[in-house]
């Protein structure tokens, strides 16, 4: 019912949602028949449907390399995230993970749900890895080694300063950006991007995730995961977990806004990186997550709900981003619209208001200077309900067609 209400409130979400659903179904049908590749792509769909959809548009060799790269790093991240693993067990695994990917027999029991399956049957990922070209293997091994070492370092070290924060985010996400740039270059489809720009692409996404996932991380059992830097949160509360308590709501929001302002410093680099991409499929693969990130920041800013539950973009808006993102003008338009949304929420009494506005103005200027904003479709929609009888009728008809399509395909699969 919540999804129905969202569609009635934003009826123009319907068509992109249907397109996305059909695209996901088609992508799931293109899973390779070989057991190891079938496992890899099936697992990709389970742990990240939107990522799996975008990756399917890449050429086969690069698609396979990025699929394996993603699953190797998800497995590494699963080991890091599992707070039930003792430090003396976890650190050696992280440090040696780049060697395990060459071992068809290696697996390790940890994680939950789909991630547990990934770890239990990791031999499929290793088998797929060993079928990749040597240039792809070298990139994946190098990034896995560096990331594992960085994760191991921060198992024994808290994130104290903003420099620590940037270093941690570099290890767990900036290196992903570097790895992807190297894979793009190895495929012959892109020039080699600078390490600093590649790093910023990862840091922007990771910082958004850390901001959005505050409550989930702080409530982790048996031990909280704390990634917000003490240098920021200690200006507002005595302990990081204090931010979730209602009596600290004002300070929590100020701290949140400080964190969002910190993340915004990477947006300009991200726009510069994306503007240099040449291959349309690679461009879309990179651009969609970045637009989702700036959109999530706009929703999180000044929003106490970050400390009460999950704040994320509605499914219809996500579908629109995936459907509409085709060129750099679309990216400039989306960054412009979400930055305007965020700027409208800045309270001049906020301790970081001046810095926040300055960083947003820098982003807005880049978007304006692109000269493409008149070509954009706005991503910022009014919040008032738009109950239109015609749109409701179209929704009912299209929903019936979709259900009939799904039913027919289910019957064909039996």
Largest sheet: none
Please indicate the percent range of residues in DSSP E strands (runs of 2 or more): under 5%
Number of helices: 20
Q: In whole angstroms, how far apart are the ends?
A: 29 Å
Query: Residue-averaged pLDDT, rounded?
Result: 90
| Low-pLDDT sequence parts | 381-387
Radius of gyration: 22 Å
Category by helix and strand content = mainly alpha
Number of strands: 0
Shape: globular
Instruction: Write down the secondary-structure element order.
Output: HHHHHHHHHHHHHHHHHHHH
Helix content: 55-70%
Question: What this model shows, in words?
Answer:
With 414 residues, the protein is mostly helical. The chain has 20 helices and no strands. Helix 3 (35-47) packs across helix 8 and helix 11 (195-212) crosses helix 15 (267-275). It is globular and about 60 Å long.
What's a quick, concise take on this entry?
With 414 residues, the protein is mainly alpha-helical.
Please outline the helices and strands.
Layout: H1 2-9, H2 14-29, H3 35-47, H4 49-55, H5 60-81, H6 87-100, H7 113-120, H8 122-129, H9 134-155, H10 162-186, H11 195-212, H12 214-218, H13 230-233, H14 249-264, H15 267-275, H16 280-300, H17 315-324, H18 328-344, H19 353-369, H20 389-413
Cofactor: Mg(2+)
Pfam families: SQS_PSY (PF00494)
Transmembrane segments: 387-408
């Amino acid at each position: 019912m919540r999804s129905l209400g969202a569609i009635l409130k934003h009826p123009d979400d319907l068509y992109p949602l249907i397109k996305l659903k059909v695209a996901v179904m088609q992508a799931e049908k293109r899973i390779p028949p070989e057991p190891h590749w079938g496992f890899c792509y099936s697992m990709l769909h389970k742990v990240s449907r939107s990522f799996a959809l975008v990756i399917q548009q890449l050429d086969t060799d690069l698609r396979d390399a990025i699929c394996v790269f993603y699953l190797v790093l998800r497995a590494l991240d699963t080991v890091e995230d599992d707070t039930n693993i003792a430090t003396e067990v976890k650190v050696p695994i992280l440090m040696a993970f780049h060697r395990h990917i060459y071992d068809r027999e290696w697996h390790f029991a940890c994680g939950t749900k789909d991630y547990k399956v990934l770890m239990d049957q990791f031999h499929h990922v290793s088998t797929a890895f060993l079928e990749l070209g040597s240039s792809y293997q070298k990139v994946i091994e190098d990034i896995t080694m560096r990331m594992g070492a960085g994760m191991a370092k921060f198992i024994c070290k808290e994130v104290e300063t903003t420099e620590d924060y940037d270093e941690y985010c570099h290890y767990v996400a900036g290196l992903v950006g570097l790895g992807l740039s190297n894979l793009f270059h190895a495929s012959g489809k892109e020039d080699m991007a600078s390490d600093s720009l590649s790093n910023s692409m990862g840091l922007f996404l990771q910082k958004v995730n850390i901001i959005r996932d505050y409550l989930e991380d702080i409530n982790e059992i048996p031990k909280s995961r704390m990634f917000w830097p003490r240098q920021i949160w200690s200006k507002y509360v005595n302990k990081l977990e204090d931010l979730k308590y209602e009596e600290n709501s004002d300070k929590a929001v100020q701290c949140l806004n400080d964190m969002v302002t910190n993340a915004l410093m990477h947006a300009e680099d991200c726009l510069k990186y994306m503007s240099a991409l040449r291959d349309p499929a690679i461009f879309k693969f990179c651009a969609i997550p970045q637009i989702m990130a700036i959109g999530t920041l706009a929703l999180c800013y000044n929003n106490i709900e970050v400390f009460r539950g999950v704040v994320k973009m509605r499914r219809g808006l996500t579908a629109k981003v995936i459907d509409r993102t085709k060129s750099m003008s679309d990216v400039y338009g989306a960054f412009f619209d979400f930055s305007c949304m965020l700027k409208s929420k800045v309270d001049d009494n906020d301790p970081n208001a001046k810095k926040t506005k300055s960083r947003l103005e820098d982003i807005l200027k880049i978007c304006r200077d692109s000269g493409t904003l008149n070509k954009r479709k706005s991503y910022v929609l009014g919040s008032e309900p738009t109950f239109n009888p015609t749109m409701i009728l179209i929704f009912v008809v299209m929903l019936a067609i979709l259900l009939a399509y799904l039913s027919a395909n289910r019957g064909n699969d039996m």
